[in-house]
């Protein structure tokens, strides 16, 4: 097993164990928790690194891999930029849409802010904005 394949295997193993840990935390503690979405960006970035390292090592030893490296960079770089833009805010785990909806209703009523609630969104009338509630 080459060094690059070993690194790739370790990265994927670590990512899998981290995903299992996040899932088990929600199941065992039975409480919601929140993390910054930038952690997701970091995880995706780490997942791309082994393939970039492997192609760069191969392009140094065998010169014919340089076009593949360039193609990989042209694919990964825009994806990293898009992910950086998309991963603003926070992610909630072990939470239902009913919990979010009731917490949002309580907060808006406590602040005496008028709102209209639909099935998938809450329209804040004072701000003319919609707050979308989505679950994955």
Q: How would you sum up this structure, described in words?
A:
- The structure is a single chain.
- The strands form two sheets. This protein has a three-stranded antiparallel β-sheet with strand order 3-4-5, with no helix packed on it. A two-stranded antiparallel sheet has the order 1-2.
- It is of the alpha+beta class and 136 residues long.
- It is built from four helices and five strands.
- The model has no long low-confidence stretch (mean pLDDT 77).
- Helix 2 runs antiparallel to helix 3.
- The protein has two domains: 3-93; 96-136, no CATH class.
Low-confidence stretches: none
Q: In what range is the share of β-strand residues?
A: 5-15%
Number of H/I helices: 4
| Number of self-contained structural domains | 2
> Quaternary arrangement of the chains shown?
single chain
Give the overall shape: elongated
**What's the pLDDT, averaged over the residues?**
77
Instruction: Give a count of the beta strands, DSSP E runs of length 2 or more.
Output: 5
Sheet with the most strands, sense and barrel status: 3 strands, antiparallel
Output the strand order for the largest sheet.
3-4-5
* Class by alpha and beta content: alpha+beta
Report Rg. Answer: 21 Å
Note the run of SSEs as H and E: HEHHEHEEE
N/C terminus separation: 37 Å
State the helical fraction: 55-70%
């Amino acid at each position: 097993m080459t060094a690059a394949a070993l690194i790739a295997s370790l990265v994927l193993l670590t990512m899998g164990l981290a995903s299992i840990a996040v899932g088990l935390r929600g199941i065992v503690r039975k409480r919601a928790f929140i993390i910054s979405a930038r952690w997701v960006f970091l995880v995706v970035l780490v997942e791309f690194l082994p393939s970039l390292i492997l192609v760069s090592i191969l392009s140094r030893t065998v010169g014919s891999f340089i076009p593949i490296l360039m193609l990989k960079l042209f694919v990964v770089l825009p994806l990293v930029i898009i992910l950086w833009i998309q991963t603003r805010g926070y992610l909630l785990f072990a939470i239902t849409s009913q919990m979010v909806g009731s917490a949002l209703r309580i907060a808006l009523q406590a602040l005496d802010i008028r709102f209209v609630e639909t099935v998938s969104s809450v329209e804040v009338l004072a701000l003319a904005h919609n707050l979308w509630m989505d679950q994955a």
